[in-house]
Amino acid sequence: MEWDGPSLNVDTGVLRARITPQAPLAEVRILAGQDWKPLWPDGDALRLTMHDSHGQLFESGHLPATVTVEEQGPLRSCICVRGHLATARGQSFCPYILRLHFAARRPEVRLQHTFVFDQDPDLVQLADIGIHVPAPPSKGSSPRAAVGGEHEAHESSGDLCFVQQDDLDYEVTDGADVVSGKRTRGWASLSSADGGVLAVIRDARQEYPKGFALGADGLEVQIWPRTATPLGIHHPFQGNGDPLWRDVG
Questions:
Q1: Cα–Cα distance between 241 and 49 in angstroms, integer?
Q2: What is the rounded radius of gyration, in angstroms, for the C-alpha atoms of the chain?
Q3: Which of 73, 156, 184, 225 has its CA 20 to 30 A from that of 232?
Q4: Upstream peptide bond of 209 is cis (omega within 30 degrees of 0)
Q5: Measured between alpha carbons, how far is 84 from 63 in angstroms, rounded to an integer?
Q6: Three-state DSSP class for 19?
Q7: Pick from 218, 200, 223: nearest CA to 160
Q8: Pairwise CA distance, residues 136 & 116, whole Å
Q9: What is the residue extent of each domain of the chain?
Q10: Tens digit of pLDDT for each residue in 80-133?
């Protein structure tokens, strides 16, 4: 790892990435033979996203974040990025904590994403929470989309949406076609002749609802899918007005 001002350059031997206060993960390149090929076009970066129930979009990258090294060693390292989601005009929203784990001679990045809900739960609900991964380079044609189903992959040359609705049911939408199944394998990919990206949600079936949305602009990992009921976050003392304990003395 090497600092370049407030930004950090990471090199695992087969993967190079740049972590900046403006972008949690940017300028990712993979070693292919003797060449370092970009994982996505220059200028693109991984983005954390969130919509409230009114449709307002909040993203990482609009406000500067802090980048720190939490673990560094010959086999693995962990980088922590802390910031706030915000509108394009800079209106701050929920804080986030993103930890990026790198391993020596490994071409993947493991993410641990934490969002902190600091809004008024009586006024704000969350329509979706996601991580947007840019599409890989593609010359003249859209990347091919695929998601892991119960027994085989579901593939499409166009947009593809996947939602694990509960622990035993999922739906895949490909244009006007809808296919159902029971248990997901928890992965999705966009690939072209020039490269590809693959995302995996750990325990996706057990941690439902979860989803993926794939298209020409990239792969969206849906931590809380937009097709689900808006997420309301309340503390345990809220309910029907009855106290959780009574004075019986």
A1: 34
A2: 20
A3: 184
A4: yes
A5: 7
A6: strand
A7: 218
A8: 30
A9: 1-134, 135-229
A10: 999 999 999 999 999 999 999 999 999 999 999 999 999 999 899 999 999 999
